[in-house]
Amino acid sequence: MEVKKEDDGGKAETPEEKVVHLRREIGLLPATSFIIGTVVGSGIFIAPKGVLMNSGSVGLSLLVWALCGVLSLFGALCYAELGTSFTKSGGHYTYLLETLGPLPAFLRLWVEFLFIRPAVASYVSLAFGRYVVEPFFEPCAAPTALIKLVSILGLTFVVAINCWSVTMASRTQVTLTFIKMFALVLIIIPGVIALAKGKTENFQNGFEVESLTLDRLPLAFYNGLYAYGGWFYLNFVTEEVINPNRTIPLAIICSMVTVTVFYVLVNVAYYTMMTPAELLISDAVAVTFANRALQGLSSVIPILVALSCLGALNGGFFGAPRMLFVGAREGHWPPIFSMIHIRRHTPLPAVMLLYPLVVVMLLSGEIYQLINFASFSRWFFIALATLGLLIHRYRFPLHPRPFKVPLVIAVTFTVVCFFIVGLSLYSDPWNTGNSCALTLTGVPVYYVTIHRYRLPKRWRRIFDYCSKQLQILLEVAQQEVKTY
Fold first, then answer.
1. Which residue ranges run through the membrane (predicted)?
2. What does pTM read for this prediction?
């Protein structure tokens, strides 16, 4: 079968459209929408309470939001260099593999699919369910079972789209991104108007430094960084981006500057219409704001927030399975997960694996504890990836780097990440200790199943038989074209 090579990162031209491989179908607008749509989820509607609680004052909380945006932009620029230096998909996993070796890469894959991805997806799914159901039961509490049922329906919808078509998933993301940005504008405008009219009493004495404690500051940053989380997802799908050397840096810069400006303005709007005490007692800050400032449209805000959560969920299910897909391709996960549907050209097994894990975690109700120590593992491995960038630069100075981030940005981001991770060990030793323990459970798994493949032959035969039957059932096959 003759296959023409790709031209400058454009779509692969093939004499047969049935060639099994992931197509390059993500241009600049879908790429930017993908990052914004994944970043802007439930975080901006939930995290302001956590940031204010742990920073202690209005002024410091706004400063934390701005610094989290700058820090996320620094990290995104580092990942832009990594994404253009290493042309494989897979994000964190690929960069750790290329710079620090197979064990850190495997551990990243292990914790991602053991608890980070299911925990984050469960959290966002539940936020979606809550915002859909609760308006129908006010002022009473909504039934927990119904919230979970609606959460699972939203999750199923997202999984179905990502199994069906890459194009449909990216178009859904663009549409939901425009809806969620409209929701943010709807919050910002009345806040700015009230501020222009002189409603500034909540900003007076905004910097009360005496209420700040060093042990709570990392938790304020964790809440802010959780709301900005998702800036790295485009790197998970590098092999599906059109002209990645141009698209990845442009999409990252445009999206993160936009999100930072919007987040700071949204928080200014919150503080214009609500006192700090009112914000702290609210479980749904956006709904409280809408009841105060948008009385005629207050019923619309929960719907817009629910759609925002759905967009974040879609972005997560679009990006994260590609890490699993690449890990399986490199031999760090069962080969079935590196296969693609022969007609839909989607990584079907990798997407479907996440679905039952998220459903089980969603039904178990142990999500919020997991979210706390999922943040530690996520940021520890991001810090390792950017440390790997610096080490790779030193060891291989002549390696082609189409986009090169200034050294001071890479060093600053890496140091700050390790500092936040280290401080969190001091401020929340129980959750971070559990996170370390869960991460280290991957070490014996790596040495038994991958490094020295010591599984009994009978187990291997059973595993191979099950893989073959699954491949036939799901109609999937290995890629026939090298896409990196």
1. 26-46, 58-80, 114-133, 145-166, 178-196, 216-236, 248-270, 300-325, 346-364, 370-391, 403-426, 432-450
2. 0.84
Question: Of the given ranges (13-22, 184-193, 452-461), which has the lowest mean pLDDT?
Answer: 13-22
Q: Write the DSSP symbol of residue 406.
A: -
Element housing 341 (H / E): strand 340-341
Beta-carbon contacts of residue 288 (< 8 Å; ≥ 6 apart): 274, 278, 279, 282
Q: One-letter amino acid identity for 328?
A: A
Instruction: Please enumerate in sequence order all residues whose Cβ is within 8 A of that of 105, keeping only pairs 6 or more positions apart, or say none.
Output: 93, 94, 96, 97, 327, 330, 332
Q: How many CB atoms lie within 10 A of CB 360?
A: 11
Query: Alpha-carbon distance 320 to 235, whole Å?
Result: 10
Cα–Cα dist 366/57, whole Å: 31
**How far is Cα 229 from Cα 40, in angstroms, rounded to an integer?**
9
Q: Which residues are registered as beta bridge partners of 241? A: 26
Phi first, then psi: give them for residue 419, nearest 5 degrees.
-65, -45
> From CA 238, how far away is CA 95, in angstroms rounded?
12
DSSP line for 262-323: HHHHHHHHHHHHS-HHHHHH-SSHHHHHHHHH-GGGTTHHHHHHHHHHHHHHHHHHHHHHHH
68, 84, 132, 253 from 79: Cα distances, Å: 16, 8, 35, 11
SS3 at position 476? strand
* List of domains in the chain: 28-477 (1.20.1740.10)
Do the Cβ atoms of 476 and 335 come closer than 8 Å?
Answer: no
- Judge whether 201 and 271 are in contact, CB under 8 Å: no
Mean of pLDDT values over 333-358: 86
Residue with tokens 């979606």: 128
Alpha carbons 431 and 422: distance in angstroms, whole number = 13
CA torsion through residues 139, 185, 271, 127, sign: positive
Q: Which residues fall within 8 angstroms of residue 207, CB to CB, at 6 or more apart?
A: 57, 59, 60
Q: Which residue has the tokens 């039934």?
A: 143
Instruction: Write out pLDDT tens, residues 298-321.
Output: 778 888 888 888 888 988 888 888
Q: Reduce the DSSP state of residue 40 to 3 states and report it.
A: coil
Q: How far apart are CA 27 and CA 170, in angstroms?
A: 10
Tell me how far apart the alpha carbons of residues 431 and 136 are, in angstroms, rounded to a whole number: 36
Tracing tokens 């999409």 back to the chain, one arrives at: 251
Which residues on neighbouring strands pair with residue 477, listed in sequence order? 340
pLDDT digits over 43-80, tens only?
787 778 888 888 778 888 888 899 999 999 999 999 99
Amino acid at 297: L
Instruction: Copy the structure tokens of residue 248.
Output: 């990845």
Contacts of 336 (CB under 8 A, 6+ apart): 328, 349, 467, 470, 471, 476
